[in-house]
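Hi W., the pyridoxal-5'-phosphate complex you wanted:
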Amino acid sequence: MELYRQVAIEVKRLIEQGALRAGERVPSVRKLSRQQKVSVSTVLQAYLLLENGGLIEARPQSGYYVRTRARALPPEPVMSSPSGTATSVEKGELIVDLFKAETTPGTVRLGCAYTGPSLFPVAGLNRAMVRVMKQLGDDANSYELPPGNLNLRRQIARRSLELGRSLDPNGIVITVGGMEALNLCLRAVARAGDTVAIESPTYFGILQVLESMGMKALEIPTHPREGISLDALAVAVRKNKIRAVISMTNGHNPLGSYMPDEKKKQLVALLARVDVPLIEDDVYGDLYFGERRPRTAWSYDRKGLVLLCSSFSKSLSPGYRVGWTVPGPRFQARVENLKFMSTIATATLPQAAVAEFLSDGGYERHLRRIRRTLATQVELLTDGIQKHFPAGTRVTRPQGGFVVWVEMPRALDAFELRKRALKEKISIAPGPIFSAKEKYRNFIRLNCGLPWTSEVERAVITIGQLARDMAKK
Ligand SMILES: Cc1ncc(COP(=O)(O)O)c(C=O)c1O
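Structure:
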């Protein structure tokens, strides 16, 4: 094959695999000629070939860019409209069952928000773990009492300008994943019988936290791209005695929305007026697809009313179970006390290993890589839904993270679809587990965290086929 064709194939592969995305500049002619050790005219010929194929375009005095494919995207779901009354939460074993089905060997895991291990820096984390085991010696076996590993808190604080405001390491409490952070913060601000306002749909873990504490959920209308409706929330706080609000401002699960920064500011101002705490779940905050990290609502807080929760589960490793919270001066002592009362401490070694990994400097590079990969996987899975699901299906357009929320025709029952999909060894998450009132019967959430293999593609085709069969009946 001619040399220029080989070069063109390499560049085409970068585009197809998502390393180079629509609108991004491809390497300059000179740079590529140096990298590939070929002449400038060979690269020019390769770029001409790609240009003629519609993959890249030349922009005067600027270079070559990946063409923005005019993708015909499926329509989005509209703003949700839950009923305006608070309810107790009773999910029972439904969600644990979902996790168990996921881990049955041979199941294609489209039900849980999980990325394959290929996206985690496993080797780097292993090396960090070995180093800290040596450094800590006997201390590796002692309790790391709340607020947790100081080195890790320093590393988190070092990255805090990205969150929109600098953070004092002493204001951070390390937790067992984001889930413990949510648990502790909620217990710090509310008690059994209280009403908590949540987004609708919401992450089922939030419903489980409310259920375990005997609190009531008040579901608030939520926009698929811009998050919770402030108008509806303003009415809700006027009409109800709301103890706290929980919001996934950045990387909503299952919607994939990132609330605009200006709206976060308004949200904080609204809750400050009525003195209601906001528990901000920022677990997907680092996995945005845009140019820069969106700020947190916490960064606008001047009254100590925002309790920020996050974790390394989605970006580094869920198995390490390392999360953190910034409860603010009003609630920190209470959160630390509750932490001690519930688990005494977070495991010593994983905290130290994550700190070591962060201090090594490869984290930002790792994040850049997985953001690109996840954006591509979301795109491919959305294309799959577009091609294979019944007419009338709607899909969210996540701005980060790795789940999509799929609305199918009304008559379709997500539990029945899940049953049929499980027979084909595919797991999916049925919509009603994302609502206290079991809404969203015709919705499912699909995980885009797995590498796009032929097995995953076949699974999407199969779900689409099952859904089409059900829709026909
Ligand atoms: C929005 C959201 N918050 C919190 C969690 C829990 O995070 P962790 O695994 O760190 O406990 C998850 C996990 O899926 C999540 O999606």
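Residues 18 and 376 are 5 Å apart (CA to CA).

W.
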